[in-house]
Amino acid sequence: METPGSQSSLHRANLERVVRAVRLAGSLTQAEIARTTGLSAATVSNIVRELKDGGTVEVTPTSAGGRRARSVSLSGDAGIVIGVDFGHTHLRVAVGNLAHQVLAEESEPLDVDASAAQGFDRAEELVERLIVATGVDRAKVAGVGLGVPGPIDVESGTLGSTSILPGWSGTKPAEELARRLGVPVHVDNDANLGALGELVWGSGRGVKDLAYIKVASGVGAGLVISGKIYRGPGGTAGEIGHITLDESGPVCRCGNRGCLETFTAARYVLPLLQSSHGTDLTMEKVVRLARDGDPGCRRVVADVGRHIGSGVANLCNLLNPSRVVLGGDLAEAGELVLGPIRESVGRYAIPSAGRQLSVLPGALGGRAEVLGALALALSEMGDSMLLDGSGAGAVPASTPAFT
User: Fold this and answer.
1) 359 φ/ψ angles, rounded to the nearest 5 degrees
2) 91: which of 104, 109, 281, 346 lies 20 to 30 Å off by Cα?
3) If we measure between CA atoms, which residue out of 287, 268, 289, 373 comes closest to residue 329?
4) Rounded CA separation 189/151 (Å)
5) Residues 6+ positions from 402 with CB-CB distance below 8 Å
């Protein structure tokens, strides 16, 4: 038995610190591991050698700052995680390994509003199909990240607003999918997962404070503070769509008037163009027409950008993020929407906060949420299974781990 404070327990703690740093980052040089963990370069070198000999990590030559270095990542065979993203009109599933490599990914249309049971059925089928397609051992599934387009109550795990997903009223998505798949499932809303995806793989890399704005059937923000998703005590942080812009404006589904969402979300914006462009419009089509020079669509996209910029200015004044990443179909409009966002930020934000802010389009497009779900599963899994063979993907202690 290890005694707290003993040399063996200290060594174990250092092993876990190194594995955790590599697991969350995907890959790090040994110098980066030392800076991240606070361990000495010599200690990191010895631990990496031990983990490599045990098959837990892989070490490959690389360069950093023009000098030779060694990149450390978890073994591609150490285990897998699964990401499941429910959008309002689609279901997307991805399978990835612990080295942050996506092994398989598939999307299919789905009316998620119709029925929670139908959605879970389709998700279960798609997960099983991708596991078979990749040929990985199902016993190595370490966890699942799940995204839903609505707020999740942090304490109960229940989907919060029934006005967003009426067919999911009273459901506990993580609990239901875990029962079906037999592995741990961690759930969050789509905006938070979009932020996590862009933070790990996309336009948020290298920053610790950002806001990911997603404009779709609703408007939400995923907030990253000091490198971590901020959810608030009830899980509703980031509901930027319900900032009031006009107290006499349209009635919002939340019951208030003139919310940001009523000036930017697809359900409110598309009717503005139906008399001139028909009733089969989508935000994707509006953006495409705007990029092609359609004056009506360009005006609507610019107006939406200015309204979003007002909400972003409020975020700047309250949280002072260093970066805002715009996701969803609207991000494909590029400067047609980003320019007006920056214009409003310059007008309404405190000058010092506005000057420090960069506004960028998401780099991951429609994949941001499912990749964020993979990142969520990676961040929530424990490290013990990688060090001593316990949990999913376990191997006998006498066998090199996960080789």
Assistant:
1) -115, 120
2) 281
3) 287
4) 6
5) 55, 56, 75, 77, 78, 79, 140, 386, 393, 395
With a cut of 70, which residues of the chain have pLDDT below it?
1-5, 160-165, 383-385, 388-403
Give the pLDDT confidence score for residue 56 in this predicted structure.
86
Q: Which residue has the tokens 């007002």?
A: 310
Pairing of strands 67-74, 27-29: antiparallel
Category of 45 on φ-ψ map: left (φ > 0), alpha (ψ -120 to 50) or beta: alpha
Predicted confidence at residue 4, as pLDDT, reads: 57
Residue pair 107/91 in contact (Cβ under 8 Å)? The answer is yes
Identify the burial level of 339 via C-beta atoms within 10 angstroms of its C-beta, where 0-12 means exposed, 13-18 middle and 19 or more buried.
Answer: middle
The answer for residues whose C-beta is within 8 angstroms of residue 24's C-beta and 6 or more apart is 378, 379
Pick from 185, 188, 194: which is nearest to 213 by CA?
194
| Residue position matching structure tokens 């010895």 | 46
Q: Residue 384: what pLDDT?
A: 66
Q: Which of 145, 139, 142, 103 is nearest to 123 (CA)?
A: 145
**Contact (Cβ atoms closer than 8 angstroms) between residue 287 and residue 329:** yes
Model confidence pLDDT, tens digit, residues 37-52 = 999 999 999 999 999 8
| CB neighbours of residue 206 within 10 Å | 8
Distances (CA, A) of 42 to 48, 65, 148, 335: 10, 20, 44, 48
What's the pLDDT score for residue 402?
22
Two tokens, residue 207: 């920053």
The pLDDT value given to residue 181: 95
Q: Return the pLDDT at 400.
A: 25
What burial class does residue 59 get, using C-beta atoms within 10 Å of its C-beta: 0-12 exposed, 13-18 middle, 19+ buried?
middle
Q: Are 197 and 327 in contact (CB under 8 A)?
A: no
In whole angstroms, give the CA distance from residue 48 to residue 201.
Answer: 24
